[in-house]
Amino acid sequence: MKYMENIVLRGEKISFSYDGVKVLKDCSFSVGNRDFAAVVGSNGAGKSTLLKICLGLLKPDQGNIWLFENSIDKFEEWDKIGYVPQRIMNLNLGFPATVEEVVSAPLHTSKKLKNLTKNEKKNLTDKSLEAVGMSQYRNRLIGRLSAGQQQRIFIAKALVSSPQLLFLDEPTTGIDNKTEEDFYKLIYKLNKDDGITIVMVTHDYTDIKSMVNRVIQISDGGISDKIHKDEDGDKK
Amino acid sequence: MMEILQYEFMQRAFIAGIMVAITCPLIGIFIVLKRLSMIGDTLSHASLAGIAAGMLWGFYPFWGALIFTLIGAVAIEKLRKTFSKYAEISNSIILSAGIGIAVVMIGLAKGFNTDLMGYMFGSIAAVSSKDIYIMGILSVIIILSVIVLHKKLFYIAFDEEGAQVSGVSVNFLNMYLTILTGLTVVVSMRIVGIFMVSSMLVVPVAAAIQTGQGFIKTTAISVIFALISVIFGLVLSYYFDIAPGGTIVLLSVGILVGVLFIKALRKRK
Ligand SMILES: Nc1ncnc2c1ncn2[C@@H]1O[C@H](COP(=O)(O)OP(=O)(O)O)[C@@H](O)[C@H]1O
Ligand SMILES: [Mg+2]
């Protein structure tokens, strides 16, 4: 397989079920370096499940995930991965945490980054907040921001460890159209200018069709092995 | 007020009370934010079984409480995995087991005595030097653990999956937090009493959250609220000769109501 060297994420015949209910069957896919990949499919198709498998949060029944050419169970450089979960709706709005505390959280937990000085951590946090245009809110409580702003903070948190691969799960749910447009511009910029590989779940990808160069389609019924790639067309 | 400190038992009560006021909110903040407020009740009922066992078989009740809360803590975490869809069930099971064992043993020991009442409702006169010594060791373990782990515990409480992706050992730390909660119950039971330990874990933190600060400030404020409740609670309970647990918890509820009242006034302006 000659295109292997640039693959940052690969799923190999993934099957997964919740308590015996099959959600994914024999799913194979790959995402190349600097790709903008959309994971699409109807509600309940298994998009979030697939993302969680890629992140090691769920173990597949069969098959394997490869991250940066390492089998996921051997993979250790989690700083390279950012994750924005599909959770803006269940965020506890009363949670007593400032924007700065939220965004800097990964800096204190990653093996590589936790030894940075206080100042270095602060700089990385600042840079991340700046990237999403939220610098002036650093001391605000997370619950006092609008849904769109909170989503930006979650992106900033995912960006703080300078990831090369960013997973987003329906990041624009509950956000108005204008904010959504700005938000897509931001993601597009991260992809094009900063070279971050994007894997984004969306139930409706008409809005982002022009930015995306790879589509991972999970078909109805929750079981799929369909993948098409717009650019290199190497569908098996 | 200072003259009450000339009594040695009051000195011990204050030292014990201050340990409670520091450890309860430090653990309580994570318990509350993870929506596990029930766990304090569960583990305190497990500790009651341990105390009853100690009294029945004549060994130091603290050891009984320590062993039973630790077993309870591990069992809750294990059961939580088994009943993953109904997390609260694991609490109910352990609570039932704890209270059941306690009642049977109290029956076998031919009923209640003042010693047992002291553990249930808190006591200022009953705190011994040995109690203080053990409470001190447990408090140091709790405080050091929180100092070392608070960033990770915060991340787990805020976003468990995100923390796991960042390489935090979520399963281990959830178990460890439950064990620390068990130790906090044992530290607190002497002064505030088994029935009110859970309130000390939750109420000062609930009041502090209402002040609308970030995580570190909220934690600090909850310790201050707990210290105020404990110190004034002990003084009141000395002068009116009542069990300290009730006065301490009522004072912390009073602080919560006060904070809510001030917040409501501010909003109207
Ligand atoms: N924790 C879970 N336990 C059992 N079933 C689940 C769980 N999470 C999701 N499912 C089911 O798996 C299917 C796929 O879910 P999900 O991956 O969230 O879909 P999507 O993100 O595409 O909407 C759905 O039918 C959903 O009901
Ligand atoms: Mg989903």
From TrEMBL, chain A:
Membrane keyword on record: no
GO molecular function: ATP binding; ATP hydrolysis activity
Keywords: ATP-binding, Nucleotide-binding, Transport
UniProt cross-references to Gene3D superfamilies, sorted A to Z: P-loop containing nucleotide triphosphate hydrolases
Family: Belongs to the ABC transporter superfamily.
Limits of the ABC transporter domain: 9-236
InterPro entries (UniProt xref): AAA+_ATPase, ABC_transporter-like_ATP-bd, ABC_transporter-like_CS, Metal_Ion_Import_ABC, P-loop_NTPase
Record's protein name: Zinc transport system ATP-binding protein
From TrEMBL, chain B:
UniProt subcellular location: Cell membrane; Membrane
Transmembrane segments: 12-33, 45-71, 92-112, 132-150, 162-185, 191-209, 221-240, 246-265
InterPro entries attached to this UniProt entry: ABC_BtuC-like, ABC_TroCD
Pfam families according to UniProt: ABC-3 (PF00950)
Biological processes per GO annotation: response to zinc ion; transmembrane transport
Any one annotated GO CC term: ATP-binding cassette (ABC) transporter complex
Domain of life: Bacteria
Main location, first listed in the record: membrane
Membrane disposition: Multi-pass membrane protein
Keywords per UniProt: Membrane, Transmembrane, Transmembrane helix, Transport
Family membership noted in the UniProt record: Belongs to the ABC-3 integral membrane protein family.
Protein name: Zinc transport system permease protein
